[in-house]
Amino acid sequence: MTKSGYTGSLFTWYMKRNSQVVAKQRLDRAVGNSRWFLRFPECSVQSLVASVSDHDLLLLDTSPDSQHTVCHRFRFNNAWLQDANLEAVVVAGWRCEGEERRAGTDGGDLDRLQAEWNLLLEEDEVRRLQQAKLFWAQYGDMNSKYFHAHIKGRRKNNLITGLKNATGGWCRDRDGMHG
Prior knowledge:
The chain has five helices and nine strands. With 179 residues, it is of the alpha+beta class.
């Protein structure tokens, strides 16, 4: 197995706590065998920022040079009507365009896939929430160290240590809070 060419961020995974990055690693890679690299010698991998995951997306491009082609406006030349192969060339061109459309180069296909991905993420979130509630219901009343520590942590996070008064100053003692 060989790694393919890589561009983008140095790291592909970020662990965040309270909106702060506390750990980052390059966990995600694209690899291929010798047959793959013979078939796609110019392939490259690009790291893209993901909006909903702690892992970056990896975009595998099997033909990066094809992106640099310039599209010119088509102009028909009447001399082509004299060529006997004209019909075969036109039919082959239409067939190629149809295959590209079926391969998902259409922008509407991307919107549909994005909506489907968002739906799957919502379903996964609901499933995880249900799983957490079930876990708590099964093991939450076991009087274990884990659950005592969990409750203590919540108490600490929810503890109110001060209040802001009308002038914008902080009151941290009981007398200032009652007044």
